[in-house]
Amino acid sequence: MKSEARRAKRRGVRRPPGEGERTFEGLAVSPGIAIGSAHLHEAGNVAVPERTVEAGDVEAERGRFEAAVQKSLRQLAKLNSKSSTLPPNVAEEIGFLLDAHVQMLSQSRLVRGVERRIVENRLNAETAVQAEIAAIAEGFAAMEDAYLSARVQDVRDVGARLIRNLTQTPYQAFKNLPEGSIVVSEEITPADTALMDPETLAGFCTALGGAEGHTAIMARAMGLPAVLGVAGLVGTVRSHDTVIVDGTAGRVIIRPTASTLESYEARRLEFVREQRQLARLAKLPAVTRDGVEVTLEVNIELPRELESARAVEAAGIGLLRTEFMFMNRDDIPDEDEQAKMLTEIVQGMEGRPVTIRTLDVGGEKLASALGSEADPGANPALGLRAIRLSLSRPELLETQLAAMLRAAAHGPVRILLPMIATVAEVREVRLILAKVARRLVRRGTRLPDPLPPLGAMIEVPGAALAADALAQVCDFFAIGTNDLTMYTLAIDRGDEQVAHLYNPLHPAVLRLIQFTTEAALRNRISVSLCGEIAGDPRFTGLLLGLGIRELSMSPIKLPRVKQRVRSIELAAATTRAHAIMDQSDQARISALLDDFNAER
Ligand code: PEP
Ligand code: MG
């Protein structure tokens, strides 16, 4: 680019976003076609908690601010590297914008000003950011300079990013959107997704996020078409543009022409028709051609998903992710409230088993009500997450277990522990469970006898390798291939930059699944698989062939998996699974599997 044009850009003279149809590719994370009007989801308007900081806490507050700056820089670097896949002129345009934001976070007036306000005025970091942004914006406005006034929005954007990273607050902005809106955002957290109402929203698309992260899982749970990891989206779409989200192909089209619209409308109707046909399978049993029964259950997060579990005639709930009941609120639900929510689900399943998992907060799933203990730490996926957090806060765990035991009086319940790595963790929970049960009996609460089975998620490679030992202390296993794949291959499941490397068909992952299944069978305890591959018919034959007979998945996925189960001959699937387990090359494994699937 010519240097004058470059300077013009630096002066804030940006080209308006291009007119006409544009197509973007991303990750297909939740199937279906959505056509609607764009709602740009901005990072602003986050409620800022104001407080003064004790003298002894000033350093810690500076540390929080520094961590938010670093996280913001990481996010900007990620956005920058994503934009390199775009046409050069668009990439350059976005590059300038992101560079400006990076500069504002690098020993700038903004950073120094916020630090000064924390240290001298003892303000908490969020308030200090807000005050400094307001002061800078006011100063710019007074200068009446076109270049600087164009920078004001950048300053505000950077401030909003910092505050969002500091508060870890989800957006609350999905209410009152016109029906059929499509949310377009840089990033949507799992907690944000839990606030979406599939009755009003048509779908969503984001620049960041991987296919196996919890945002993707929630999108599937709600049946909302979604495409994540779309480079160049933000900055090109304008509010109220018509947007097509093709969650099946991983494509987003903005400002489509009349003929594109027509063809996607036809595809949308075809998808709806297909779903209706699959729904007819609900009444049919999940049995292979050679008569082997398979238990198909669902993963749910919130009581409102109960209806979809019943609609597909699930054999039970194989995974209830209770952490979603702790999100988007300032307080922790007490025992009565938790017991009420869980009882509603247990009663709603009318005698079919409900597997309730204790809190799996941490990593990418944050619940602001849990405060600093749920701080992601330097290495969130390896930090104080899941059962580790529960054991470090026994009052949290005891309340959850008490609520589960109370719900268990209304129907069959199994208690599941996330991220178990050692036998000692299970033993410790067993002792706590017994203590909680005694306390409830003293209170006169009716409890099931025997107490509900206690099982472990097998999602840490070390737990899979120690499956024989864990089977001695567990009543059942649930294999969590989402995390198992992430930890085995060292690939962040929620990071779109490495999404292409995330492969549950890696021989190491398959061996861990096989070893865990065989250890469960040897020790006569039941084993299910509740990672996302359970809901992908491509994997069904392989998983049955490895000995799995219980699969738990998003309700939307169950009909297709049932269809696949009914087309499989278990003897042939077992032979093929053995052949696959003899391979070391992922491409060969894929080919053997696809070839088997094609033989229907
Ligand atoms: C898993 O890790 O496979 C799993 C089912 O748990 P989550 O997706 O909630 O981490
Ligand atoms: Mg997991």
Present the secondary structure layout.
Blueprint: H1 3-10, E1 22-25, E2 27-30, E3 33-41, H2 58-83, H3 88-104, H4 109-121, H5 125-143, H6 146-167, E4 181-185, H7 190-194, E5 201-206, H8 214-222, E6 226-228, E7 242-246, E8 251-254, H9 258-279, E9 295-300, H10 306-311, E10 317-321, H11 335-348, E11 354-357, H12 386-392, H13 394-407, E12 413-417, H14 423-442, E13 454-458, H15 461-465, H16 467-473, E14 476-479, H17 481-489, H18 507-522, E15 526-529, H19 537-545, E16 550-553, H20 558-567, H21 570-581, H22 586-598
Parallel strand pairs: 3-4, 4-5, 5-6, 9-10, 9-16, 10-11, 11-12, 12-13, 13-14, 14-15
Antiparallel strand pairs: 1-8, 2-6, 3-7, 7-8
Short description:
This protein has 600 residues and is α/β, with parallel strands linked by helices.
Q: What's the number of structural domains?
A: 3
**CATH fold-level topology of the largest domain:** TIM Barrel
Largest sheet: 8 strands, mixed
CATH class of the largest domain: Alpha Beta
Question: What's the architecture of the largest domain, going by CATH?
Answer: Alpha-Beta Barrel
